[in-house]
Amino acid sequence: MTERRRWSSNGSSLVRYLRMNQHSTNAHTTAASRALAHSLSRYRETDCTRSVFEVVITAGPFALLWVLIWAALDAGYWVGLLLAVPAAGFLVRLFMIQHDCGHGSFFRPVSRTIGSDLSSAC
User: In terms of pLDDT, which residue wins out, 87 or 3?
Assistant: First the structure.
């Protein structure tokens, strides 16, 4: 009987197989989880310099595009619409930063205040 037929014909045999191999799978998963946790440990604490950098490189171009869209309305509606596409991307990024501020991932002491300000601006 092929492997596929054995698993599809009787679901309980698959459960038994998984239970028999559970110990070796758990040991491998635990080791992999520990290695992943160790490699990601440097991201547990906030970095205010990086947070300020991320806000500046996102809010700055968004504000610039916003001004350019207003200026482009005199040149034609379609020019403003073309500029609105990258502005929408920066707006989504600002929303992501605001969302992370709500969780305390940016600027630990004043994260909620900045998140509130960003959500009002967006």
Answer: 87
